[in-house]
Amino acid sequence: QCPLSNPHLPVPVLQAAHCQMIKDLSACLQGQSLRVDCRYENKTSNPLTYEFSITKDNRKHVIHSTISVSENIYRNRANVTMQKNLVCLYLQSFTTSDEGVYMCELKATNDYTGNQIKNITVIKDKLEKCAGFSLLIQNTSWLLLLLLSLPLLQAVDFVSL
């Protein structure tokens, strides 16, 4: 539940857009690639635009984006996958020269409250290896459904005997 920032505003639709928010930004090493997970809460079915960038030497460098143009040095090394409530950046051949402050910026179409931004500082020696748990989390509902349906399946088998 998102609390209303100003309950006296006459337009509740704009208030709901405030709930479009980045919940978590995390980074890990997957083999030789950097993976940056940008988890968000989505309260709208509007299309989502994103931008992953890095700030180093006080300059912002766009790595992968649907908002602006990516820089050449990252274009062939970066790709992004989108799932429900998760946008993942993969940066191949990650080295210490790719260290810096990574930023995830999300914006929903027709969301007038501005972009959602979250930063994470990425240092190669401090990165942990990506655990397989994210795959498990995505499949949890499927597994839960299977487990819940087992007694039902057994009951059906019993009836058919």
TrEMBL record:
Principal subcellular localisation of the protein: membrane
GO biological process: cell adhesion; integrin-mediated signaling pathway; positive regulation of focal adhesion assembly; regulation of cell migration
Entry's Gene Ontology molecular function annotations: GTPase activator activity; integrin binding
InterPro entries: Ig-like_dom, Ig-like_dom_sf, Ig-like_fold, Ig_V-set, THY1
Pfam families, alphabetized: V-set
Source organism, top-level taxon: Eukaryota
Keywords attached to this entry: Cell membrane, Disulfide bond, Glycoprotein, GPI-anchor, Immunoglobulin domain, Lipoprotein, Membrane, Pyrrolidone carboxylic acid, Signal
GO annotation, cellular component aspect: dendrite; external side of plasma membrane; focal adhesion; membrane raft; myelin sheath
Role summary: May play a role in cell-cell or cell-ligand interactions during synaptogenesis and other events in the brain.
PANTHER family (UniProt xref): THY-1 MEMBRANE GLYCOPROTEIN
UniProt-recorded name of the protein: Thy-1 membrane glycoprotein
Organism: Rostratula benghalensis (greater painted-snipe)
